[in-house]
């Protein structure tokens, strides 16, 4: 039983996998839990004999969109490159009514601000898409594709703002341990 593999280069990973493989008479099945962007699948010798399952292991959602955006001020977001930019997002949430609104997100004096507005919106996203952005599961390009949003409907500064606010990172939350 191997609980965790930690390696700092590809040859050490290959050595550990070879060691595990050498014990294949004792163990007929191997289960590997890895982050979605892990490169281990690139070095497994014969993927045809492998079964790969992507299993989301964490249930989460953005409960209060307004508070979530305000909380981004405490993150290490480089607001200088997005200063004086804004975007209006229409949020759709079928469970929490207070999230259903058009929100203007702007950056002024290196501070992220959000306010409800009664204006036309630049982009419409449901709370599931926002949650995927917030938890770094998907980046803005992937969200645009999944929601069939024409990228050209956003001006460059709006896309830059979305990319800065929702930068995709590796999520190391492991609730399987």
From TrEMBL:
One of its GO terms (molecular function) is aminoglycoside N-acetyltransferase activity. GO terms for biological process: aminoglycoside antibiotic catabolic process. Residues 80-172 form the Enhanced intracellular survival protein domain. Pfam families: SCP2_2 (PF13530). This is Enhanced intracellular survival protein domain-containing protein. It comes from human gut metagenome.
């Amino acid at each position: 039983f191997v609980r965790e593999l930690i390696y700092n280069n590809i040859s050490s990973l290959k050595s550990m996998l070879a060691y595990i493989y050498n014990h294949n008479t004792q163990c007929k099945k191997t289960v590997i839990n890895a982050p979605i962007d892990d490169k281990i699948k690139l070095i497994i010798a014969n993927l045809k004999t492998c079964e790969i399952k992507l299993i989301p292991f964490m249930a989460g959602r953005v409960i209060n969109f307004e508070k979530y955006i305000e909380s981004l001020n405490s993150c290490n977001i480089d607001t200088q490159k997005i200063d004086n930019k804004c975007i209006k997002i229409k949020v759709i949430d079928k469970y929490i009514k207070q999230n259903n609104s058009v929100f203007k997100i702007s950056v002024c004096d290196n501070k992220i601000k959000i306010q409800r507005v009664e204006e036309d919106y630049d982009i419409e996203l449901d709370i599931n898409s926002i949650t995927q952005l917030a938890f770094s599961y998907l980046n803005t390009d992937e969200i645009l594709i999944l929601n069939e949003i024409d990228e050209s409907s956003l001006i460059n500064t709006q896309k830059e703002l979305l990319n800065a606010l929702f930068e995709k990172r590796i999520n190391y939350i492991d609730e399987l341990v």
